[in-house]
Amino acid sequence: RVTADDWDQWEHVKAHFDVSRDFAAANMIGATGLNGRSWPDLDMLPLGWLSNADSNEGPHRQCNLTIDEQKTQMTLWSMAKSPIMFGGDMRRLDSMTYGLITNPVLLEINSFSSNNHECSCLLSVDHRPPVALIK
User: Fold this and answer.
1) In which region does residue 48 sit, left (phi positive, over 0), alpha (psi from -120 to 50) or beta (all else)?
2) Which residues are CB-neighbours of 17 under 8 A, at least 6 positions away?
3) How many CB atoms lie within 10 A of CB 28?
4) Are 55 and 95 in contact (CB under 8 A)?
5) Distance in angstroms (rounded) separating the CA atoms of residues 38 and 31
6) Which family does it belong to (predicted)?
7) CA distance 44 to 4
8) Which one of 30, 65, 71, 133 has the minimum C-beta count within 10 Å?
């Protein structure tokens, strides 16, 4: 792993942006490693229902991230080509979470994209931010 534990708090997700940027800038995403290629493991995706089936200890609750924050996290993990490891309870998987972790576009980006890197843009309060569409 290349980060501290990730949990369902926006501050945890935000911390991964700089790590992802730095790995991309150093050309370490997909770089040849000791036994194959190197991928930055940003930790599990704590989405959906969070519990521990072998313990009475919590959290036993729905993910605290908003839907937009969950989408942002899954998108960042895909663009960083981090291993996609679902950290929720599969027995209680809701349709939104299922749709997110099986999104074919995000999984394709994670599997087949290259040269992923941060780009800068300046936004004006008078204009809508630019977006990119991936087909």
Assistant:
1) left
2) 76, 118
3) 14
4) no
5) 5
6) Belongs to the glycosyl hydrolase 27 family.
7) 11
8) 133
CA–chain centroid gap for 100, Å, is: 11
pTM: predicted TM-score of the whole model, two decimal places:
0.82
Run means of pLDDT, 10 residues per run, the chain, 135 residues:
85 91 87 82 94 68 95 94 93 96 96 82 62 46
- Token pair for residue 42? 């940003």
- Cβ density class 82-103: b for 16+ within 10 Å, e for less: bebebebeeeeeeeebeebbeb
Half-sphere exposure of 77 (CA within 13 A, CB side): 28
Q: Which residues pair with 61 in a beta bridge?
A: 50
Rounded CA gap, 87 and 97, in Å?
Answer: 11
Amino acid at position 58, single letter: G
